[in-house]
Amino acid sequence: MNVFNALNEAAVGHLLFPATSSLMNRRHILQNFRRFRRTEWYPPERLIEIQESSLRKLVHYAYHSIPFYRERFDAIGLRPDDIRHLADVTAIPPLTRQEVIDHHHRMVDSRCLPYARMADSSSRGTGAPIAFARFRRERVVRNTSSGSTGAPTIFYEDGARTGLNWAHELRFRNWFGIGPGAREARMARVSTDYMPNGRDLLFRKFFWNQLALPGVNLGEKDYEICHRSLADFRPRVLWGFTSALAGFAGFVRDRGIDVSPYRPELVITWAAPMYEHEEALLREVFQCHVTNIYGAREVGHIACRCPEGTFHINQESLLVEREDHRAPASNGSGEILVTTLDLTIMPFIRYRMGDIGTISSRPCACGRTLQNLEDLLGRTGEIFTTRDGRMISPNFWCRTFMSPALSEKIIRFQVVYRANDDILIKLVRGNGFEKSTEDGLYRFLRDNFSEDIRITFQYVDEIKPQISGKYEMVVNETARETGV
Fold first, then answer.
1. DSSP characters for 375-443?
2. Contact 143, 126 (CB under 8 A)
3. What are the residues whose beta carbons fall under 8 Å from the beta carbon of 332, sequence distance 6 or more?
4. Dist CA 205 CA 27 (whole Å)
5. What is the SS3 assignment for 80?
6. Average of pLDDT values for 67-96?
7. 3-state DSSP helix/strand/coil percent for the chain, to nearest 5?
8. d(Cα 257, Cα 253) in Å, to the nearest integer?
9. Which terminus of the chain has a smaller tally of CB atoms within 10 A, N or C?
10. β pairing state of 372-379 and 384-385
11. Does residue 469 register a pLDDT over 90?
12. Structural domain includes residue 188
């Protein structure tokens, strides 16, 4: 890196980005980043002490300031002082996505509710920051989840959680030797037709060293725009939706495009799991570190994979649990529950993520002592449990269709779990797909599923993405019918 670029990164990372973010009430980004760099090496018992202290404050705040939690606690006879240790939190019923949809106004700090209602009628884009929010009373922003699991959840924040997310991202990038202010291109949740206006783009480039690119509804024209923009911007970090980055990497590979003029040092995927074939493609094309963030818009960044391949949980800011009885498995996996420990205007206490995984304190070769998220199998509705108790995760289907025998003959696939244990597999055929291809695939699947499970194939011209831009690899119709 030349002297000019080093000075530019220092100015942006330590002055322009934190200063402008603070004006939007996204405060303490650098302070939290520096704190996380210390605490990620703390002894495990010290991290638990930090969590317990934050949990006690959170429960008191929720009871006295948020009607939804006060009524929930009163209904079970729970007083704030009853929650002293992490294990005590199991007395609080888990929070479901549907409850957030139904009660989002009552889950807001009552002092901020008038501003949340104002945000509902605002013409400001979903999640868009408020200029000079730090000096305004009406600083509440309305946001929504992607809606990939059904109806989107509505939630509110005042900039604090976004600031915490930025600090977590600085931590993650630091794991790969990239400091604050590094040039970053982000494939965001907007299409080419709805990209930010020129003023917003210039602001991001100058004050944040950030290039905004389309991340949904992408076609060849959009990928070409991304290619030209990246060649001009030359980011050190490429960040975006897993499906968008994998799609762009496929476009680059298939057209033999030389990415050496803008090869990043780090690719960060998020908003969906990164399956083995996607990671292999990204590594092949960009020849750099590739990592994945696990999280949700409602609760923020939960964990990120370090250079040693371990998903470390942001333990200082979150309490992550595994609920055993919801989806027990032989490997100890269960449904993930998340509690946001920061005192924001709309906290989430024991929020059901809908994902299956395991929490571990297994030592990592990187030396960080943060808890680990392991065996992240996928969403509850994406997992097929056989009659003998085996759990078939989405990764099984990835390995099946991305094998050398099938990867070039099948363009896209979608697995549909239907009633009576029927499995429908939709396929978009590519060059070289023959009757023998189907026969071989059928024999392989018969070896992995019992005879009472009917497997059928349906050939389609295309499999369309969801509104969010994500491709639904597994559809569980039985889960939707039962409301799981």
1. EEEEEGGG-EEPTTS-EE-HHHHHHHHTSTTTTTTEEEEEEEE-GGG-EEEEEEE-TT--HHHHHHHHH
2. yes
3. 322, 324, 358, 375
4. 20
5. helix
6. 97
7. 40, 20, 40
8. 6
9. N
10. unpaired
11. no
12. no
**Chain-wide mean pLDDT for the chain?**
89
Q: What is the CATH number of the domain that holds 446?
A: 3.30.300.30
Radius of gyration of the chain (CA): 23
Question: At residue 356, does pLDDT exceed 50?
Answer: yes
Say how far apart CA 415 and CA 122 lie, in whole Å: 40
Contacts of 277-283 with CB under 8 Å at 24 or more apart are 277/398, 277/402, 277/407, 278/242, 278/245, 278/246, 281/246, 281/249, 281/250, 281/253, 282/245, 282/246, 282/249
Domains identified in the chain, total number: 1
Return the higher-pLDDT residue of 435 and 176.
Answer: 176
The mean-pLDDT minimum among 123-127, 329-333, 345-349 falls in 329-333
How far are the Cα atoms of 3, 397, 464 from residue 436, in angstroms, in the given order?
A: 60, 19, 27
**Domain containing residue 399:** 384-482
**Is position 110 within any domain?**
no
Instruction: Report residue 103's pLDDT band, with 50, 70 and 90 as the boundaries.
Output: very high
- Residue 190, helix vs strand vs coil: coil
Whether 185 and 234 have beta carbons less than 8 Å apart is answered as no
At 482, the amino acid letter reads T
| Mean pLDDT, rounded, for 356-370 | 95
What pLDDT shows up at residue 104?
95
Q: In terms of pTM, does the model score above 0.90?
A: no
Q: Binning pLDDT at 50, 70 and 90, where does residue 467 land?
A: low
Query: Residue 431: is its pLDDT beyond 90?
Result: no
Residues 65 and 344: their CA atoms lie apart, in Å, by 11
Domain-located, residue 75: no
Within a domain: 470: yes
- What is the C-alpha separation between 261 and 234, in angstroms, rounded? 7
Element spanning 212, H or E: strand 210-214
Q: Which range among 322-331, 377-386, 396-405, 422-431 shows the weakest confidence by mean pLDDT?
A: 322-331
- Residue identified by tokens 């969590």 is 51
Is residue 196 within 8 A of residue 190, CB to CB? The reply is yes
Position 187 scores a pLDDT of 92
Pairing label, strands 266-270, 289-296: parallel
